[in-house]
Automatic annotation (TrEMBL):
It comes from Sphagnum troendelagicum. Residues 91-113 are annotated as: Disordered. Pfam families: ABA_WDS (PF02496). It comes from the Eukaryota. Belongs to the abscisic acid and water stress-induced protein family. This is Uncharacterized protein. InterPro entries: ABA_WDS.
Length: 113
């Protein structure tokens, strides 16, 4: 049985279904890794914001500088949280495409002669 190149949900033109499925799995994995990295970054910046908020109170001579650090860390935390959410959404899309590709490929074998 000779397979013809096809274009699927996550694949490039000329890829075979098995390659597309593997690429979708790799993409999902990459998005999950990026999501976790963003979450860890958000945790780190949130902890730094909490530390600077405390420093703002215990070091009144430099309160303005500490307050600016708090604001910057909070902005970074928010940005990383949004990025983590984006990556979560992308990983979910890849997972759905992966399931579709697997289901489509499984049924494709029944129709070819």
């Amino acid at each position: 049985m000779m397979m013809q190149p096809v274009q699927g949900l996550g694949g490039a033109r000329g890829m075979y279904p098995d390659q597309q499925y593997q690429n979708l799995q790799a993409e999902e994995h990459r998005h999950k890794q990026n999501e976790h990295r963003a979450e860890m970054g958000a945790l780190g910046t949130a902890a730094f914001a909490a530390y600077e908020k405390h420093q703002e109170k215990v070091d009144p001579a430099h309160a303005q500088r500490h307050h600016m650090e708090v604001q910057a860390a909070e902005a970074a935390t928010l940005g990383l949280g949004v990025y983590a959410l984006y990556e979560h959404h992308e990983a979910h899309k890849m997972h759905k495409a992966e399931k579709h590709e697997k289901h489509h490929h499984k049924h494709d074998h029944h129709h070819r002669h």
